[in-house]
Each structure stands twice: as structure tokens, then as C-alpha cells.
């Protein structure tokens, strides 16, 4: 074997030693159950350790199926949750956080093994590939386990979670309202089963998971009788209506420009939110005004072309072709087209080769979304099967395209939004605080969208109750060590501010 392979094998062996076999409360090994074909095995629990924030923490990891039933009491779904509970504190009063990813159709592995959980795998940065580095979980020194217990929820159709009912039942889970009701029910049932109803409850969600967070909080308040202390939305879409009418509305272009400018500026050195103040000012000022004047005003077009070319690094002739309205797919292809590279929509500074550099139409795998599928899936399956003894006889759905394809968005004339739920949750409970976190170079959910939404909220007694933070990086900014550390610090401050 080559030295690199030997080192990887040794590292994997050390991981096995540090985690060990799943243990009962009396430290005897759990028997590894044989799953039924296509079914889920029995719930499992394991005592583990990780070095987090310079402290060795002992915790209990669990993988469980939360059953959901219809009004007749018949089981219609099994939702798999993965939880980490610190052993040194009273679980009844310690904060507990439920985390969801997005898609819709994404499992919670992104947040579990990328940002918040006690162990993480490297992915999503320039130079990371589907095969390198090896998908080995290592201690996450920025894990939130230091200040909250964690429960990662895989909605129906993601991870190992599944619908057991009819096609109509499954379609209900794969809808905006049905999804929210199901997740709120999972949280309430899990809290009750674990005797955690008196614990401070928090919700965290990434991307579409960030859209879920205010609406799940509202459903918990009003339907399940559970109060929520804090909300953390990571790269969220809070109002899909801001993305509509690109042909006539200037708003989508205004919200995209700062993230494109951040991408171009980062190539010359580190970029902070403060470094983008001039771009935000231009985007919401002269750029907005000139877009409203329209393409038949040649002076407005000339101003747009000159400034947008300067900010984005794109060729002025190309910017003029698009009328200064740069869509994200054109941006990630054109920025590095002379080099035969394409960027990721999730962070355009992470690039791969363009498989068809001379083709007129853009068809390429996303360097981050598609490039992270192998390491995250392998790490997750290895964790469940080898570390936890939770072996399932079907594919682990990291990102299930069937869910996204069949998702029911509701009335097309009324785009889904989570802003009303957020307003109502904040108004009803003055103790709730929210952190909205974005990466500066994320084109999929640009941070200016959230800024636009949050700026329109009433103060509700304290304008600081809802904070927007922007970190270096893209949609999954937490793959960068510095941004993950800064995010952990800001999240910890929210928990401290909302503590009893």
C-alpha cells in the first residue's frame, strides 16, 4: 500500500478504537439486530467521547425511529432521528436542539457531520473531491454539543426515514404544510418520549430547513403545546416570493449582486460583510433605480454595465448581453470560462472542470452539491452501520431527487413563505431570539434576501432579538474552519442570551 493509503487506514482504525462498539447503560455491548429486508432495525444507543473546544466530552449517541400514525392509530411513517446527549448534565433541564436540512429532500447529514455534531467529515472546499480526503469522521472542536444536546431529524424520504402509508399519505408528507405538521409532531413526540418537555427547546435548519424553522416553531406553539426558546436559520429562504417575476422585478437581481461581488473580491483576499457595504449601497440605490428605468434607457444601461462588470469581474460585453441582470448559472460558468472551469452555485469560488467547455448549453455537476455526495453518504452509512450497529437494507438517501421532484408547493399564485409564522412566533413569545446565518459567496440563497425580509420585521420590543450574520464562504460556509468557529461563537451567544 502507498503511504497515503496506510495513513488513511490507520486513521480509520483509530476512529474505531475511539468510538467502540455500541454499549448499553451498563457498558455491555448491544447486540446488533438483523434488520428485516427493507425494514428498520431496533433503536440503538452508544456511549462515545469527543474532544470539543479543548474539553473531552462523554455523550450518548442514539439512532431511533419516531413513528407517526394517522387518526385511526395506524402507523404511516418512520422518521429516523440521530441524537447526542451530554452525560455530565441533567438532561431534563439542558437545552435541546432539533436540526433539519433542506432540499426539500436532503437528509440531516450536512449539519450533523459538517457543522453541529460531535464528529465531522471534510468536504465542500476547493481541492476536496468525491474520493479525497477519505470520508473519516473526526472530532469536531466547534460542535454545539458543548452547550446543547442535539437531535438531527431526517424527514420522510431522506436518510433512512420512510412513508408506510398510501401514495396519498406520502404526497402529504411531501408538501409544504404536511411536512411542517409532521416535523412538529416528531419534535413533540421525541420530547415527550425522552422526558425533555421542560428542557429549553431550540430549532436549527439549513436552506429549506431554515424555511421550516419558523413554521415548525409556530406549529409547536399552537398545535403541539411546546414552546421554543431560539431559532437558528442557516442559509435560509424565508420568502420564495422574492424570487419571482425575474423578467419584470428588479428585486432578484438586487439581492444577487452583493454575493457575486463578494465572489470576485474574495479572489484578491479575505472579504467581510463590512467590505461589501459599498456594494449593498449600490445594489439598493443606483442599481435598483437604473433597473427600474429599464433596458430602453441607454444611459441607465451604460451605468449598469460599467458598474456590474467592475463588481463581478465579468466581461462588459457579456454583462451588456444580459442587460446587467446576471443569473447565477451564467455567472458560475462565465467567471472562469477562459480556464475551462465552472464554479459551484453554492460557492462560486469552488470550481471544477467544465465537462463540455465548448457547448452552448450549460450541463455540469455542481462542484459542491454533487462533489459532497460521496464523502457525506459514505461517512453517514459508516457511522450508522459500523459505529452504531444500525444496519439498514436499503439506500441511504442523502439528497433524494424524488422528494424534490414530487414536492407540492401549493398555490402557484401565492409562493410559500415563513415570514408570517416568524412574526407570529416572535409576537407571541417575547423570549424567542433568532440567528440568521449566511455565507457571503452563496448564490443559491443570497444573504441580501434575508436582509430584505428581516429589515421589514417590527422591533417586537428589542431589535436585537433577530440577528443576521454573514461569514466568509458559501451556502455551507461551515466547511471553512474560521467560519465554523465564528458561527459556533454566535450560536453560543444566542443560547446564553435565552438561557434560564
UniProtKB/TrEMBL annotation:
For this protein, the record's Pfam families field holds: Peptidase_S10
- The signal peptide stretch is 1-25
Alphabetical UniProt keywords: Carboxypeptidase, Glycoprotein, Hydrolase, Protease, Signal
UniProt-listed InterPro entries: AB_hydrolase_fold (IPR029058), Peptidase_S10 (IPR001563), Ser_caboxypep_ser_AS (IPR018202)
Q: Which GO terms describe its molecular function?
A: serine-type carboxypeptidase activity
The answer on whether this UniProt entry bears the keyword Ubl conjugation reads no
Q: Which GO terms describe its biological process?
A: proteolysis
- The name this protein carries in UniProt is Carboxypeptidase C (Cathepsin A)
